[in-house]
Amino acid sequence: MPNTNLTVDWIANESLALAHEKAVFIGTTNRQFDSSFIPGRGSTIRIRIPTQYTQSTGRVIDVQDGVEQSTSIVVATQNHVALRYNSQEYAQDLVNFRKLHLEPAMAQLVSYIDGQYLQFATQNTANIVGTANTPISSLTFTGLARARLNQYLAPKDNRNIMIDSVTMSEIIPNQAAYFAPQKDVSERYREGFIARTAMSDFYENERVWSVANPTNVSTWADSYTIVDGDIDITVSTGVALPIGGSFTIGHTSNGRYGAVYACHPETKAAYSHLQNFTVTSSSATVITFTPPIRLTGSRKNVSDSTGADLTVSSLTSALMRLSGGPSTSYAMPLMYHRDAFTFATAELPMMADSIQCVIKTYDGISLRVWEASDIRNDERLTRIDILWGRAAIRPQWACKLIGTGV
After folding, report:
1. Same structural domain for residues 259 and 297?
2. What integer pLDDT is reported at residue 261 of this predicted model?
3. Residue 63 falls within a domain, yes or no?
4. What is residue 335's predicted lDDT score, i.e. its pLDDT?
5. Domain range spanning residue 297?
6. Edge to edge, what strands does the sheet with 159-163 contain?
7. Are 113 and 246 contained in the same domain?
8. pLDDT by residue (tens digit) across 344-382?
C-alpha cells in the first residue's frame, strides 16, 4: 500500500529543511523583510536607509535638511523544480524518497537561487582589495577586506566571507592553526561552513562569481565634467567593461590628471586608497556605475588626496582603470556584513482547484508545494516554487577580493 506518511506537508517540511541547509549565502544575509510582503499588496517595498549628517562647530546653530535615502526590493522572480514519480516510487520509505528525489531537486533549485543572489551581491560591491595575479594564500588579504569594512563603519559582528574551494585550498595550508576544529563546528548545520577566524565566518562556496576582464582594462575620460550625484561617465573609445568589474578614476602617481580618493563617511578625511566604483552597465564610450559620486555635504564619499573637495577641472581626462589584468578571469571571494544585502521571499497563492497544495515558511524562506496526479501514466507530479527578490542595502559594507586569474 502507498506510504501514508508521504504527504504534501511532509514534502514541504523536508524541502524547507534542505533549503535551509543548502542556502549558504542566503542564510548569512538579512532576511527580515519577508513579513512586509502581503498578498495582493504589490511586489515592491521601499527600505529606508539612515540619513547622514555633518557636525558643526561654534555657538550658532547650523540646521541641516535631512535627505531621506531609500532602496527598493522587488519580489518578482519565481523559480521552481518539478518532480515526477510513479506509484512504486511513491510507496517507498521516506528515507529513499528524500534521497532519490527531494535532495537532488532542492539542491538544484536552491543552488541556482543562491548563486544568482551571490552574483548580484558581488556585482553591486564596489570595494575590492588584493593584488591581481597574486594568490590569496594568507589571511593578509582577508585582513585588508576586514579593514575596508571597518573604514565604511560596518558593525563588527555578523561578518562572513564566501570563498571558492581553490582559493580556500591556498589559504588553509599556510594558516592551519586558524582553521583548527572548533567547538561550535558541530553546531553549524549550514553547508560549506569552515571556521570562524579574523572576525568572520569562512564559507566554502563553489557559486562564487567570476569576472571576465576584456582585452583592455584602462581608458581615459573624454572631456568629462564631474557633477554631484554622477552615475555615468563618458570615456574615449575603447571596449565595454564587464558588469560587476571594479574600477578607479585617476592615478595616485600622476596628479596631472587628478585622482578620486575615498574618504571617511563621517569625518570626510581622505583614505590612502582611491574610491572604488563597480560597473552596472557599459558600452565602448559610456560607463554607468555605483556608488554615485558625492562631492560635498553629509553624503560626500570622494575627495582629493588631502581630503579637500575635488577640483572638477582636474578630472576631465582622468584615467579609468579596471581591477585585474587584460583578458583574464578572476574569482571574486566576498566579505560582507549581514546587513549589506537582503533576501526576501513572498507567499505564492493557493490555487482554487488544488487539492494538495501547501505553503510553508521557515527562517526567511517561503515555498509552495503543489501535488497532482497523472492517471494516464500512473504518476504523481510535484512542483516546488519559490518567489524571491533581493536588494543591496549597504553595499559599502562588503568587499571583493582579487587574486590569481585564469
Report:
1. yes
2. 93
3. no
4. 96
5. 212-325
6. 128-129, 398-401, 334-337, 159-163, 200-204, 193-197
7. no
8. 888 888 877 677 888 888 877 889 999 888 888 888 888
